Amino acid sequence: MSGPQDILKPRFAQHIDIHCPDDRAYWAEQFGVSGDELKDAVKMVGSRVTTVAAHLGRQAA
């Protein structure tokens, strides 16, 4: 069984690499959304963590 501690930290602290499964899993967990919701947010507002966080109504990690 995997948990939040098993998710690898992203390669980039300020941008979400939506094509990298580890990055997608990390940021989805941080924002409390599904991978699909995260993908949709990145498509709408771009990959900057702070912008995605604001779009999702969450705080950036």
UniProtKB/TrEMBL annotation:
Domain of life, per lineage: Bacteria
InterPro entries according to UniProt: DUF3606
Protein's name according to its UniProt entry: DUF3606 domain-containing protein
Record Pfam families: DUF3606
Organism: Methylobacterium terricola
